[in-house]
Amino acid sequence: MRSHASLMRQSHFLGTKIRNLRKQHHLTLEDLSARCIKVDPEAAPSVSYLSMIERGKRVPGKDMLAIIAEVFQKDSTWFMDDALPQTAITPVKSGHGGISGMALEPGFLFSDNILQIAIPEMLAQTGTTGRQFAHLLIRAHQEHHRNHFPDLERAAENIGLKRMPLQVDEMLAIVARLGLTIKWFTRAPQDVLDETGNHSKSTVRSFFDPPGTLYLNELLKSEPSRLKYDLALHIGHCTLHDKDGLKSVLLAGKNRSNAGSAAGAQSFEPDAQDILAAWRDFECSFFAGALLCPRIPFRQLLERNSYEVNVHQQLGVSPSVVMRRMTAVSSYPHWHYFDAYPPGTLKAVYRGNGIPLPWGNMRLVEDPCQNWAVFRMINQDNAGTSAQISVLESSKGPRIYCCESVNVEDMAGNPHVLCAGIDLNPVLDTQGRPASELAASLKEVCVRGGGDADIPAAIRKDLLSAAGILNIGWIQRGINNPARVICSRGSVCPRTPTCYPATDSPDTLTVMERMQQAIRIECS
User: Where does the record place the HTH cro/C1-type domain (predicted)?
Assistant: First the structure.
């Protein structure tokens, strides 16, 4: 280890490197200080001292530099003047969202008049309701902004004063302060046919009746975490919209139809009411999460506990609230989240980095890839969690993902799977590892192993480094399990042998492809 005098002579760019590296990983000074404390509480730098280091006003001692180096999974010598050109650590500002768009050419086909005609026709032909399309628009808006809605965060903080955890009696006190009256009703879960034609159970959890009555199902009394969420959601509606009552009924179950609409009414034209209801469903849900898990204290809790889902027990909230809030408060922006019901439908989805869907969230697909963790968990009787490293070929090339999944039941008794995951390619690239090459190598190993394989030592080392810098415990557990190759659809399965018939067989070619094939043969 270098002496302090040597550090002084070689530290001209040290502060700049630490600052750029911190910004590359989307960490605040508070985040970096907290992670240093986790490594060594005694020798860790304070927020103010880190600020002085970054501004070149202080030079850390060798012990303190070693702590900072461990946080970023670097050798201490990396921070010296003669290591790594400055351009290699300058953070690159990314664009909004992670969803790839499409060029709207020719432009006249995408005019407002044409779209207003074409969209209802498209929805009618595909059987997509106006309400479903509205939810798709809201999800696209959410993903475009990377789940960052500071106005909703501030509104929740003004109500909850950043207290965490909030107890049921504190939530009831907020309800009383807003002038709401609570009435309890009894409604047991009933068998229904959901939108896919499958049997499930459904019941009304709660609803708001203007000007000031909140109706709650008696079942919530025995489930404090769900009671707190419903209260938080209706507090959000009353706070954001002055108790106007234009809010969907909150249901338990995967049936997404609007309980407030006329029976059997299925409009294939998205109207203003659909868009408004979908937006309010989203923003009230986001508010509820921010009220129960305020950004700064919740993020600090996650950092202390390495982003383990079981922190929901400390807070008295559901795993769903914790996993959805992870995607919103983490300094790492490349998250995704699924809430999946059997046999294969998604009730909720967030794709912060454009990850393909394992199946459609509007209806079942014929060839879902059965190797996604969320899909496998649906068919397993597993009360615990399942961390998985996956390799997926995307439009941007092969990518390495890691996810944590957990089996749960909704209030109506329907089993479903919650899954929170991240794209590891960006953090690998930030660390100077060739992420696309690592992903391609890991995919090749998995394909040779029939679809899954133990992670080779060299790739394992890089993934452990990424897990350390992200401070996410379940990545390390996933590394200890075999990695799996997954696909966006079974028809493009990369496994050997494939899970589905090869896509280039005569039976799977389209009529036009068979005609083109015949013409080529005739001309050759």
Answer: 18-79
Helix (H) or strand (E) holding 136: helix 130-144
Domains of the chain in sequence order:
4-89 (1.10.260.40), 125-258+267-292 (no CATH), 332-492 (3.30.450.20)
Show the beta-strand stretches assigned E in 155-234: 181-185, 190-193, 199-209, 213-217
Q: Which one-letter amino acid corresponds to residue 344?
A: G
Packed helices 168-177 and 224-241: angle between N→C axes, nearest 10 degrees: 20
> What distance in Å separates the CA atoms of residue 137 and residue 225, rounded to the nearest whole number?
29
DSSP H or E run through 50: helix 47-54
Residue carrying structure tokens 């909703």: 152
> In this structure, are residues 365 and 359 in contact, taking their beta carbons and an 8 Å threshold?
yes
Alpha helices in 145-188 (DSSP H): 150-160, 168-177
CB neighbours of residue 129 within 10 Å = 22
Instruction: Confirm if 323 and 341 have CB atoms less than 8 A apart.
Output: no
Which bin fits 83, alpha (ψ -120 to 50), beta or left (φ > 0)? Answer: beta
What single DSSP character describes residue 339? E
How far apart are alpha carbons 361 and 346 in whole angstroms? 5
Tens digits of residue pLDDT in 87-141? 455 555 554 566 667 666 566 667 778 887 888 888 888 777 887 888 888 888 8
Q: pLDDT per residue over 335-387, tens digit each? A: 999 998 887 778 888 988 888 887 766 566 666 788 888 888 887 766 666 89
Partners of residue 421 on adjacent β-strands? 336, 403
